Amino acid sequence: MVGRIAARASVVIWMSALAAGATMNSTAVAQAPAHPSPAALFEPADTCKACHNNLVTRAGEDVSIYTDWRASMMANSARDPYWMAAVRREVIDHPAASADIENECSICHMPMTTFPDRAAGLKGRIFDHLPSGRSDDPDTRLASDGVSCTVCHQIQATNLGTPSSFTGGYVIDVTESAGARRIFGPFQVDAGRTRVMQSSSGFQPAQSTHVQQSELCATCHTLFTHALAAGAGPTALPEQSPYLEWQQSAYLDTQSCQSCHMPVVEEEMPLTQVLPQPREGVSRHTFRGGNFFMMKILNRFRADLGVRATPREMDAAVARTEKHLQEDTASVSITRAERTGNTLAIDVDVENLAGHKLPTAYPSRRAWIHLAVRDAGGQAVFETGAFSADGRIVGNDNDADATRFEPHYAEITQADQVQVYESVMVDPGGRVTTGLLSGTRYVKDNRLLPRGMNKADASAEVAVHGAAAQDADFAGGHDRVAYRIALDGAQGPLTVTVQLWFQPIGYRWAVNFRNYDAPETRRFVGYWDAMAGESALVLAKSSSVVR
Hints:
Elements: H1 14-19, H2 38-41, H3 45-49, H4 65-70, H5 81-93, H6 98-106, H7 111-119, H8 140-144, H9 149-152, E1 181-185, H10 191-201, E2 203-207, H11 214-221, E3 223-225, E4 237-240, H12 242-247, H13 257-261, H14 292-300, H15 302-305, H16 311-328, E5 330-340, E6 343-352, E7 366-374, E8 380-384, H17 397-400, E9 411-412, E10 420-421, E11 423-426, E12 432-433, E13 441-445, E14 474-475, E15 478-486, E16 494-503, H18 507-511, H19 519-531, E17 537-546
Parallel strand pairs: 1-2, 9-15
Antiparallel strand pairs: 3-4, 5-6, 6-15, 7-8, 7-10, 7-16, 11-12, 11-13, 14-15, 16-17
Helix pairs in contact: 5-6, 5-19, 14-16
């Protein structure tokens, strides 16, 4: 969310890339407009809707580009109430840097109004454009359109995959005039369809495969922060780095970000309802991710947040996201369950099926193991990691006390020990924090590694921190946790159940907003209080009977 605030030498937009002597696309020239207007560079997604909608498979499934996008987190990036609350919290914590904070946090969440400002050497704004739909802001429609069609499809191949492209350092040519601005896509478009697109949208289609490369996604999904707290040094903290995790995984040469998050329609499909031309390999614009909980919030509080996707579309997006999480992200198994006298020995294996850490991206996300043992009468003999309706994990230190956190475990013997896969930041004084611009380093990062990642030689940006670094059973693609339980005479047969849970916004990351008195923080806490019981999901489960 919050990118680099100071000394952002690694972040490049068109103007700074030009100043640094970067090789630009042949369409770029040395002089950019003094302050290009958002409307001169971008169009709202409704412009694209006219043609790229009403696309249905033979089985009757709607796979329309516009409809899929409208219910995604990309479309709702500027309506995300957690993001708004988090930005407000940072501004309250660091008031002297408020303009810089808004500038950094808007380049990826509110790009169509921020990019023109930054291209002209100004700073992007967030709260001037909120709430969505305000009539006194001429750019409100573009601001609230979030990560829209004419953002991603105008990003050039320049510098993609390099550090200069990270933290919102994507390159868009600001010099092309209306009617000549190019929209990049993976398919070749003939002259007739090109004229239709130019006349209807003002953009000219251009074929380029860089839109199918992970490096495009990395521009906004590789983010670094610099702490503003007193005593903080210059070191950049990797706030999120799924692209760098993927680079060090076994998936590097076999699957891209798009192959999972934009699945291909499994039949020939036209891109447009106007002069339709069936094509093979059309990617859906569902942008499947992990934040099913925010989608639920957006749907329930749609009037507050100006959500434009229909309730049915949002329900479908939630269902797709949950299905993806439960089928494609992880597995859990009981590889040993043996009773010896009064002791029960259980080994639980967790496998990460994703091409990056699990969970990945924004550090509010966590996964954990819930294990329960019940006797012949169904009574609990042992339980660790149960999920509470208020959003807490029972027994988790950090949920009970903001100053503490649960360590990584190789072996668990007590009910108040919970294996939580998460990253934990501390401030310059070593205090646990959920403030991105207070965090200076990670004291724990035991998020499940992707297959193929070697923790011993992983780069600093994706390193394992804490006890997991020394746990021989915590390795690329999996973790094994040993449970050794005193049975106190419990009668069998004993039923062992294990579940792997996931929560996009951890309890502490939500309730810490109670310390901030602002409209955005109060609003999100209200949403949390109403929906905390829906904030987590079981990804995988297994069971075994011990006689």
